Amino acid sequence: MVGSECYSNPPILNASSGVGYVTNIAGVNTYVTGSPLAILAIVLVSDVYGFKPPLLRKIADKVANHGYFVAVPDFFNGEPYNSENVSRPFDAWFKDHDPAKGIETAKPIIEALKRKGASAVGFAGFCWGARTVTDLGKAKLIQASVLLHPSFITVDDVRGVEVPIAILGAEHDSIAPPKLINQFKQVLDAKPEIDSYVKIFANVSHGWTVRYDPNDPKAVEAAGEAHTIMINWFDKHLKK
Question: Which residues does UniProt assign to the signal peptide (predicted)?
């Protein structure tokens, strides 16, 4: 079975949440927020719960407030993981939604954003989304990348990234444990020509940046710190 931390603590799904709206980009339903006139675009690639959770859309709105046009595509084509669907367990769902295929959905979205006028595009991936973002960074199809509690990537994947990359890991995470995050740091430190940043957050678990309890001040603070690092990373590498 794939690591259960990917789908523990399921979020509330609410298609009407957020200050933005859902539109179609390159054939993909996408939550968008921020000024359509912004020339810098950020794409958030969700965890297995897709683009509807209010907390994810809140993060998108927060990023948009820093001058970005932000897109959160539905990489699962209307089929996010549903923990209540006992007839379709996670492993069966996962076979139909291989993170290695995410790049094929992402490429036309990037092209569409550039046709709209985006001069630079950054991607952030949460859990499942980290593979898509890493593959895009290896192919140099984006200008900056952030991985938050990444899943389904290897040291060799990270070694191949050719764009600025920040990786935010959790102290309590069996999918990307601190030992693996530190291995990511070692291979990135060996590539000084690629700007990188790696941080392991203490006292948090996998998914802490997007599946946190908004009524828990410590959880909100830890998630907020990660979001700030992400935004600052994009500011550094896209606002040149």
Answer: none
Contact at 8 Å (CB) between 60 and 70?
yes
**Dihedral of alpha carbons 176, 180, 186, 190, sign:** negative
Q: How many residues does the chain have?
A: 240
Query: Which residue segments constitute the domains of the chain, with CATH numbers given?
Result: 4-238 (3.40.50.1820)
pLDDT class of 1 with cuts at 50, 70, 90: very low
Three-class DSSP category at 218? helix
Taking Cα atoms as reference points, which of 177, 170, 122, 129 lies closest to residue 155?
177
Structure tokens at 16: 């009407």
Q: Determine contact, residues 125/132, Cβ cutoff 8 Å.
A: yes
Q: Count the neighbouring beta carbons within 10 Å of the beta carbon of residue 213.
A: 12
pLDDT tens column, 172-208: 999 999 999 999 999 999 999 999 999 999 999 999 9
Q: Which two tokens stand for residue 60?
A: 């998108």
CA distances from 131 to 101, 103, 125, 154, 161 (A): 9, 8, 8, 9, 11
The identity of residue 40, as a single letter, is L
